[in-house]
Amino acid sequence: MKWDFHNLLMRAVQAAHAAKSAQGTKPLSTARIVRRWFFHLGGPGLILLGLIDSSVIPIPGSLDAMTIILAAHEKTLWTYYAVMATIGSVVGAYLTYRIARKQGEKALQAKLSPRNMKKVTQIFERWGFFSIALPALLPPPMPMVPFVIAAGAMQYSLKKFLLAMTLGRAVRYSILAYLGAVYGRKIFAVVLAHGWTALYVMIGLAVAAGIIVLIMRVRRKRPAFAAGHD
Asked: Domain limits at 79?
């Protein structure tokens, strides 16, 4: 049974906005109960959600949403929430990696169709480290779990796997937590008006711009470095 946490959290955001204009006392909805529970747990709640999302039950977008919500709620702790979300996601992915490593090719066969298994293994064989780091960085609908399973099934280096996962997730959740801390409820307004896709597009553009700037800087430094060694 899949838990529709993404819609649940969306309803929690809507409830938070509605509460401002609501008059009188109303019974708490399930969404508000879940939201309050995660507020109470704080950082450890993000670890728990990351473990569930990456290993037991797929709930795409839920960890992203809660990272933003908690960072918006306590702006000065945005780096803490980014770290806790990263830890939960990486540990959850590690558990999936270990299971796939023990099962080998059977893990891929159990989770993927023959066509998708061939496609994932080809991408992983060609790109290796980046086939883990990029899906870890980019938001849905970029698939993550198939490449985690492929890494384990194909006996990929544990150190490289953890480094790629940590790098991608740390950048992703740092961006989300920072946006939550800086823009707070304005982000929720964008989500309510245009859906999570709009937010993910904004994040994707920001990441792409950062990568382009980094590449340009590296290219500028290369001629100077080469000239210094002539």
From this structure: 5-193
